[in-house]
Every structure is written in C-alpha cells, then in structure tokens.
Amino acid sequence: CGMWIDASIAASFVSDPKQGKYANQMAFAQTPVEKTENGANWLWAWALAIPASSQNVDEAQKFINWATSKEYIELVAANDGWASVPTGTRSSTYANDNFKNAAKFAEAEFAAIQSADPNKSTLEAVPYVGVQFVTIPEFQAIGNFVKEQIQSVLTGKYTAEQALKRGDKFAERELKKAGYYK
To answer: Which of the residues 33, 55, 96, 157 could staple to 152 if both were Cys, CB 3.0 to 4.6 A apart?
Structure first.
C-alpha cells in the first residue's frame, strides 16, 4: 500500500499502462484530513502570458486561444487518445464522456480542483489568499522537508505530531535564516 499526495496532473501518467506496470492498480481520492477540508487542497496553474515586450502580440494571443480551446483538446484526443489530453484546463473536458471513460482519475481530479478555495484555505482565517504556494525562495526546501516528514509518518518512523513539529522547526529555522523574522 502506498500513498502519493501530489498535484492531480500526475494522475494521467501514473494510471497509464504504457508508463508503469502498476497503472491498473491505481486509485484516486482526496487528501486525508483530520479537522478541516480547507487545508488539504492543492491548487496550481500553468499559465500562458504575453510579455509586454512582445513584437507579436496578436499571434501570441491566437496561439493561447488555440492551445486552450476545445479544438486543441479534440486534436490531442484524436492523435493520442482521450487519456492524453491536457487536464485541468477546461471544465468541458471533465463533462466529456470520452474523457471520463478513458481517464479513471477524471472525477477525483475535477472534485479536487472544484473544492480548492484560495479565499478559505486554512481552518482559521488568514490575511492572505492562496492554497499552498508561498512566493519566497525558501518555499521549495521547506516543502521538500515537510514532504519527507509526511513520508516518515506513513512508514511509521514518526507520529503525525512529531512530523509536524519537525516541519515547523525546520520552517522556523529557514525563515529566520532568510531574515523574515526580526
């Protein structure tokens, strides 16, 4: 038994029999919680943008429109199959029966996207908007350390309380080192 808590986008390749011998044994669910559903969501975006310095604004906008269109989704499906279409880009993809039949993760992924609320992402009210990303250089190191602590809980090395305390201590140390605390 194993549990991988990550972005829903991973579902498309971990459930692909061409990419792994255990693909048919995969199941998908929301992240387990103890007290609040609010803190267990993951919401991220891969964005397309046109730089202000672009010499080809109209062409860039046409590309963005095409790359996020139903027509593009259908083109990918025709060439590579419905399980290969980009997920998380269009609500209409999740309503498509062809996609739902090809992607056993579709229902869980769409539920995860719909349940993430950037305005209410924690148990207690907070003065910021966002689900799980903090725009500081230390974010990745803190995230990796906390991830390792969660893995340690799953393997029985630490209790959840010990892992959380270790993660908190590491984050405090990194933030102090970076000068966020006076």
So the answer is: 157
Q: Is the CB of residue 33 less than 8 Å from the CB of residue 40? A: yes
CA 173 remoteness from chain centre: 26
Look up the pTM and report it: 0.68
Q: Is the Cα dihedral 15, 20, 25, 29 positive or negative?
A: negative
Highest-scoring range by mean pLDDT, 22-36, 101-115, 161-175? 161-175
| 99 and 32 both lie in a single domain | yes
- Exposed / middle / buried, residue 128 (Cβ in 10 Å: 0-12, 13-18, 19+): exposed
Q: Where are any strands of DSSP class E within the chain?
A: none
Residue 86 lies in a domain: yes
Q: Flag whether pLDDT at 32 surpasses 90.
A: no
* Spatial contact of 117 and 153, defined as CB atoms under 8 Å apart: no
Q: Is residue 3 part of a domain?
A: no
Q: Are residues 57 and 85 in the same domain?
A: yes
Task: Give residue 71's pLDDT band: very low, low, confident or very high (50, 70, 90).
Answer: very high
**Both tokens of residue 46?**
């891969």
168 and 144, same domain (yes or no): yes
How is residue 113 written in tokens?
A: 């996207």
Co-location of 138 and 126 in the same domain: no
DSSP H helical ranges for 3-46: 11-14
